[in-house]
Write a structure and sequence with these properties.
By secondary structure, the chain is an all-alpha fold. Helix content is 65%, strand content 0%. The two termini are 18 Å apart.
């Protein structure tokens, strides 16, 4: 599993466990990249992956 998929799965898990309400806004791209210590490219791919998977 690629790093961006792992990062996206973190958000999916939070939504399913109701730690992050469905439909709520995710952190800004730069904020998320900094919080998880990943590149902007990885953060962008994670958000793109989340959009594609619904």
């Amino acid at each position: 599993m690629a790093l961006y998929e792992t990062l996206a799965q973190h958000f999916i898990d939070d939504i399913q466990a109701q730690r992050l309400p469905a439909g709520s806004r995710l952190p800004a791209l730069r904020t998320m990249a900094k919080q998880h210590q990943v590149s902007m490219t990885t953060a962008t791919k994670a958000y793109d992956y989340l959009q594609q998977t619904g």
